[in-house]
Structure formats: structure tokens, C-alpha cells
Amino acid sequence: MILLSLIVLLMLGGALSYLSERLNPYAPRWVALLTTLTSFVLVIIFWLGHYHRFTLSPAPNWLEEFRLEWIPTFGISFHLAIDGLSLILLALTCFLGLLAVLCSWREIQERTGFFYFNLLWILAGVAGVFMAIDLFLFYFFWEIMLIPMYFLIGIWGGHKRVYAAYKFFIFTQASGLLMLLSILGLYYSHGQLTGHYTFNYTELLGTTFSDPRGFWLMMGFCIAFAVKLPLIPFHAWLPDAHSEAPTAGSLLLAGILLKTGAYGLLRFVLPIFPVQAMEIATPAMWLGVTGVLYGAFLAFSQTDLKRLIAYTSVSHMGFVMMGLFAFNELALQGVVMQLITHAISTGALFLLAGMLKERLHTRDIGQMGGLWTRMPQLGTLGLVFALASLGLPGFGNFVAEFLILLGSFEAHRWHTVIAALGLVFSAVYSLRIVQKIFLGPQNRYGVLADFTHRERLMMGILAISIFWLGLFPQPVIHTARPAIVKLVELLSKESDTAYQPYYEPK
Amino acid sequence: MSPSDYICLLPLIILALASVIVMLVIVAKGSHKTIQFVSLALFALAFASLFPEAVPLPHAVPPLLLMDRFGAFVIALILLSGGVVCLLSYLYFEGKEEGPKEYYLLLFLCSLGGGILAISQHFISFFLGLEILTIALYALIAYLKSRPKAIEAGIKYLVLAAFSSAFLLMGMALIYMEVGNMSFAGMSGAIRDAPSLPPLFLAGLTMLLVGVGFKLAVVPFHMWAADVYQGAPIPVTALIATVSKAGVLAVLIRLFLALEVLSFPRAALGIGLLAVASILVGNILALQQKNIKRLLAYSSIAHLGYMLVGFVPGTRQSFESLSFYLVSYILATLTAFGIIACRSSKSEESELLKDYQGLFWSHPKEALILTISMLSLAGIPLTAGFTGKFYLLLATLEPDYWALAFVLVLGSAVGLYYYLRVITTLFGSYPIQENTPSLPVTSFYILCLSLIGMLAILTIVLGIFPSPLIEYIRGIWIS
After folding, report:
1. B417 contact A CB<8A
2. Which terminus of chain A, N or C, has fewer Cβ atoms within 10 Å?
3. Angle between helices A329-360 and A396-411 (to 10 degrees)
4. Using alpha carbons only, what angle is made at residue A245 by residues A243 and A247, rounded to the nearest 5 degrees?
């Protein structure tokens, strides 16, 4: 029931914020804050309550399930379920949702009711994506989250907001339609094989395909997820959407919307199409490597701070792609870590960019400089997250990228060697951020205020989490392990190599 | 004719009588409001008589008509559209330069024509229904005759409709020459055992398709659509987009099902090509429209293309999906035109996209309803349009028609752009100069808005809980 109530809570909260604007223009943000806080607390309580269940024996299964017949004629049910992997991402969603409300506290002054309505509905849609295990329902939520995001960018965005919003929507929606075709193809493949027509994920697992059909069905899914991830060459929407969106929009885009792509690959593509996925592993990893390097290069040459951060996302998501197609436990654990740490570090950088924009009214890093002396606290945290983003040991990002590289080295040596160069480039662009913005000669800005309490609170929480993940990542790894091991076992069955656990926790 | 025949045809008899009653009311110098209420009551009466308990369906009235559950379903849609258009008409015509009273008479004739088409079983009733429908439409389109575009639109429709009727008649004649029978069932007996379609029959069928293609405005017979949509009064445009399309589609479905034409690959290919062309051309032409009526015209061309896709597999499921899509299309179209009618002032129609700039911030209800309609037409989840498109894709992929499914998806992706453009305009920043006088809010305005609002809610409900309608439609097609 907690699964359904989470979605209903977020949707109702959204509707309430919209209505509460009539009472008072400041009411919506309080409603939204309360809603996100409640959902976050709910998920954390659930996590702590089920922490003992993340074990390999008995065989890992769903932690919680909710099922209702929806359109029985087509074998569609309203079927939600979560395992450790989805739980982590759900917690991340609620956490970032909370921050998104906090960071819009001052920034959004117009049409607040509709703003928080959209914000909460994005969260509801993403939460649905992470929970749905009926493919029709999954597609349903996949599309639902786009519309409020479209409004968020298109109404409260920067100067080129309409263009960016169009581009975002059309890229994701068009690729989503290809996924819909694949879902239908899968439905019929399974139905014709077994005589049982269903969209249920657990039943669709283990469908076998005739030769080219399986490949094309997988490609439909892959394109939708690659656009979301985003993977070169499907990344063109990302810099525009990120740079034009309001701060909360960029935060949610980078923090959770991109993660739905990686989640889709982990949850659907690899388990349903293991044979076909192995066939494309080498080109997929090359694309990942290209993404790592290309994103880093472009990030280095940007002058717009938000575009710069957007391209670092392309680079970091290249690592995710590599880890996914290495097919071993180390790399996949690294992927899960990367999803979380990237959300936190990139999210924090977007928040900083938003704060700078609020104070300087520009995103051009050519016009910044010497801000450390004016705003020492902001500068310090800027340095912290730039270092986190370059993967310095001690931060969560290091753990993530290290695990991915370790895992993929075993699978594809040369890919990994080249991708490791990306770490060098990321050091270059991260240090450039610090140097251009916070160091160097001062520009002619008047009085600049340092952190307010609200901002200090947000950045403090983020800094603590990224340190914590760097020093003590075990809770995340422990939670994700059953799901990851299940996946690796499934994959190794296809490739005739027995699954070897890397370690046995006590 | 037996009494049960009369009971069965009661909705159509009421529609026919209604036009006489309206005439009598006009003679009695009834006011516009009186006529409006009488018409609404008659539409409701026709609707109520639609599902008679005394007569089990299907009930044939040989040789011309067959009232079955599919026919009743389409007539229900036609009556719903007619009723909504009737209500909108009061708002639209009240205070206009032209006396609106005779308008209602034509409205009933139009619905009657559509209704006859929906249950016709024979070339005679097919042609009769079509002509009743079109002749009433000529007059309706040019009703506001002092407006510059109205006469142009009327003439355009007249010439093309007469032209297409000629094609249709010639096609019917050729088919009759080949098989010697004009009832659908009789024709099917004559060609059932043929290994391939006889050439004369094929030529006749092609000409018949050309004629029907004009009425449905599918590519390449679509040239008139945008101009007529633009020139006609808004309620009439809504009527063209719903009643006439539903009636003609219904008779086409009946004809194709009876003849089992679709089992011949060549015929299926022809329909498939029409569908593909309509989807692509309709969507592409709609991209740059600045006039919302023209935009909806091109979008309706594309939607007819989607529905023709439902013909190609020729399976029961494909006709089910087609029926569902028809419902979603009619709901969304009625809502869209309803809002346009509500937003128009006495002297000027608000048909340009820029008239809707920032509507959400000044009139949230209207903008929300129009947004729902656009989302449904675009096929976004939570709306009936999505379920319809999903159903169509499901039916298309069952026999592995991947190419058609791809075109459908491609068309939807292109279509997104212009539907989004409307939505972006609605939610865009508020116009700076505020010289448009706000429209007076009358009780009829509230009535219309709540009715359209209900249609919009229905669109959402069908998007979330489509099961009852799906089950109902399956019930229609099983029998």
C-alpha cells in the first residue's frame, strides 16, 4: 500500500498546492514542502524497516507489491512493486524533490500554485516509473512525467525556454513512442509463444525471440532510454533543457529524470533481452566511452555555467553506460552508486549555478571571477562539489567511478583504459569552474550576500551526503545487492559462465 | 413495415419529424431560445429512443436498413455531436446578423443523413443518406452569407461534393454492372468465390473510394478541408468534423466488412496508402498553421488517416480499435471547437492562435479544457486519445503490420509539435495590450462551458478507466 499511497500523496499534494494559491501566494510552497517531506520520511522509514531483508537467501524477491486489474482485456494491470534498486532511486527522488521545493522558495514568485503542482507531479510520475512493473503502466508513467516538466521549462525558464521545452518534449516523446512499439512487439512475441497475452514484467522475462525481431525490439527500448540517459548521439536536447530550466527543473532533470533512462536499461533491457544485449555490448561501450570524453571536452569549452554542468552530465552518464554493458557485479554496483552520487553532486552544482544567477543575473562564467572573497561559504562549497565531480577520493563519485572502471576493466580492457582518461579531463573542467568563478581578479559587482540559512541548510545536507557516500557507501551497496546479483546471475546463465560473487558480507 | 421496424427506426423518424416541428415553431414566431430548447429536447428524445427494449438488435428493415449495435453506437455518437453543436449554436448565433432559426432545421437534416448512413445496407440508402447530409451542409457552411469567406467555402464544398458524388455514383454503377446487385450482402455473395477481384468491380470500388475519400477529406482528396473549416461558422465546422465523418466512416466499415474486400491484398494496400498519405501530409501541413480552425482541419485529416489504418488488418480487433478511436476523436474535436465557439465574440471569431495567448492566466477553465483536448488529439497518456492510439497500434501489430505502425508513430511525433504549439500559446506570457473586451458571461455560456467541461472530463476518464467502453465496443463487434 505504501507504493500507491506515495504516488497518491504526491499527486494530491500537487492539486492542493494549486488550489491553495487562492488563499495566499505563499501557501503552495508550504504545502509542497510538507508533501515532499512526508514522502521522504515515509520512504526512509520503509527502508529502515526492511533493511534486514536485503539478503541473497532466501532468493531475492519484491519487497512490496501492489496489484489491481486495470484493463483485463489486454492483460494490463496496475502493478507496482519495488526491490532494493527501485527503493534507492525512490529515496533519491523524494530527497531531491525536497531540495527542489527548497531551492525554488525565493526564485519562483509568479504563479506559484501551478509551479508546485508541476513539480510534485513530476515527482509522482518519476516515482511511478521506478515502481511500475507492468510495461503498459511503465510507459504511462514515463509519459506522465514529461508534461509537467514541459510546463516547468516552458513557463518558468530562461529566454529560450519555449525552444528548449519543445526540444525536450519532442525528443523524449518521439523516442518513447518507439518504446511503445517495442512493448507491443514484446507483448505479441510472448503471447504468440505462450498463448497468454500480458504486459506483466515478471511473466515477460525469459521470452525468447526469433532472430532479428529480438534485436529490433531491444533497440526500441534502448533508444528511448538512451535519449533520457542521454547517450551520444541522442544528447542534443539536454544542454538546452538544462540551461533554460529554472533551478528546480535542472535539479530534477539531472537528478532523477536522467536516472530513469539508466533504470530502464537495468530493469528492462538487460533482463528481458540478455542475449541481444550481449551482442551489442561492444558498440554500446564504445558509445559510453565516446560520451565520457566528448562530454568532458564540450564541458571544458562552455562559457555558460549551466550548459557546462549539463555536459558534465553527458560525461558522467557515459560511465553509467559502460558499467551497464560490462555485465558484472562490480560494474553494476558502480552504476547504482554513480546514479546517486551524480544526482547529488550535479544537483548541487546546479543549485550553486542558480544561486549565482540570482545574485549576478548571469550564467556567463566570463563575467564572474574572484567571488571567493565576496562569498567565502559559497566558494567553499563550490570547491567541494567541483572536487566531488572530478572524482576525488573521499567523495561518493570516486567510489562509483572506481567500481565502474574496475568492473569494466575485466570485461573490456581497452575501453576502460580510454575511458579512464575521462577522469583527467573531468579534473580539467572541474578546476576550470573553480578558477573562473571563485578565483582570479574580481569583477565589478556590488554587495553580494553569502548563503542565507535556507541555502546553507540545503548545501550542508548535500555536502554531508556526498561525503557519507564516499566514506561509507555500504548501505547503498547492501540495498542494491540482491537485485544486482539476480541480474548478474540471469546474464551469466546466457553466457555460460558461472556467477562468482566478489565478496561475502558477514 | 411492421411496428417493430418503426420502433427500431424511431431515432431517425424523430430527427426527420424534428425538422418539421422546428419549421412549425418558426411559423409560430417562437424566439431563438424557444427553438433552442425544443431542438435540445428533440435531440434528447431521439437519444432516449435509441436503445429500444422491445426490439432485440440487430433488426433488419429490408432491403435498405439494418439497425444493429454498431449502428446504434454510431447514431449515439452522431446525436451526441448534434446535441453539443446545437447548444453551441445558441451561443454562437445569438445576436449575429443572420436570423438563426432555419439553421436548426438544417442541423436536424444533417444528423438524419449521418444516421441513415450509419445503418445503411444498400447503395440506395448509402447515397440517400450521403446526399441528405451534404445538401444540408452546403447551406450550413454558407449560412452567414455576408461574411467574406462563407460563400467561398460553401461554393467550394458544393463543387467538390457534387464532383465526388458523381464519382461515387459512377463507382456504384460499375459495381452494379459487374455483380447485378446493390445490397451489400448480395454483392458479397457474387464476389466471395472469385480468386481475385474482377476488374470492373475493382474499378467501381476505386471510384467509390475516391468519392468517399472526398467526403472524409483524406489525402489526396483533402484540398477543400482547410478552406471550408475556416470559412464555415464554428458550430458547423464542428459538425463537419464529427457527424459527417462518423456517418461516412460507418458506412465504409459496413461495406468493407460485408464484401470482405480487405482479404484481397490489393484493396488493403490501397487503403493503407491512403492512410499513410493522410497521416504524413495532414500532420506536416498542420505544422505551420497560425489559424486554429485550419490547424484542426489538417489535424482531422491526420486523424482520419489513423482511423484508416484501423481498416487495413481487417480483423475484429482492428474495427474495435477504430470504434474506440472514433469516440476519442469526436470527444476531443467537440471540446476543441466548443472552446473556440465560447471564446468568439459576436462580430469576430477568435480563430487565430494569438487570440489564445496566455488564456490560462485569464481564463483557466477554458484553457484547461482546450489543453485536455489537444493532449487527447496528440495521444498523451491520461487521455482517451492515448488509449485509442494504443488500441490502434495493438490491432496493427497483431498481424505484424510494422510499417503502418511506424507511420502512425511518426505521424504522432510530428503532430506533437503543433499541438504543443497551441498549449504553449495557452500557457504563454500574458499579452501586454489588453484591448480585447471581455465576453459577457451569460447563463448559456456557463451551460455550454460545463457541458464541454464534462466532455473533457469524459476524455480523461476514458484515458484512465477505458475498460467499460472497451468491453462495450467488444460486445458490439462480437455479434
Report:
1. yes
2. C
3. 140
4. 95
Give the position of cell 484493396: B267
From first to last of its 506 residues, what are the pLDDT tens digits of chain A? 789 999 999 999 999 999 998 888 889 999 999 999 999 999 999 999 988 888 877 777 888 899 999 999 899 999 999 989 999 999 999 999 999 999 998 888 888 899 999 999 999 999 999 999 999 999 999 998 999 999 999 999 888 888 999 999 999 999 999 999 999 999 999 998 888 899 999 889 888 888 788 999 999 999 999 999 888 889 999 999 998 999 999 999 999 999 999 999 999 999 999 989 988 999 999 999 999 999 999 999 999 999 999 999 999 999 999 999 988 889 999 999 999 999 999 999 999 999 998 888 888 888 888 888 888 899 999 999 999 998 899 999 999 999 999 999 888 888 899 999 888 999 999 998 888 888 888 776 777 888 889 999 999 999 999 999 999 999 999 999 989 988 888 888 776 655 566 555 54
Give A163's contacts in chain B (Cβ within 8 Å): none
The angle subtended at Cα A209 by Cα A205 and Cα A213, nearest 5°, is 120
Length of chain B equals: 479
Please name the amino acid found at residue B181: N
Q: Do B394 and A184 touch (CB under 8 A)?
A: yes
The cell numbers describing B84, all together, are 453539443
Q: Does B196 touch chain A (CB under 8 A)?
A: no
| H or E segment to which residue B439 belongs | none
Largest CA distance in chain A: 73
In which residue are the cell numbers 496508402 written?
B273
Q: Report the alpha-carbon distance of residue B211 to residue A291 in Å, rounded.
A: 55
Query: Which residue from B288, B286, B290 is spatially nearest to B305, judged by alpha carbons?
Result: B286
**B393/A180 CB distance under 8 A:** yes
Q: What pTM was computed for the model? A: 0.92
Q: Is B428 on the interface with A (CB under 8 A)?
A: yes
Of A205, A246, A243, nearest to A116 by C-alpha is A246
Q: Are strands A64-71 and A76-82 parallel, antiparallel or unpaired?
A: antiparallel
Contacts of A320 (CB under 8 A, 6+ apart): A229, A262, A288, A335, A338, A339, A342, A404
Interface predicted TM-score (ipTM): 0.90
Residue A166 and residue B380: Cβ atoms within 8 Å? no
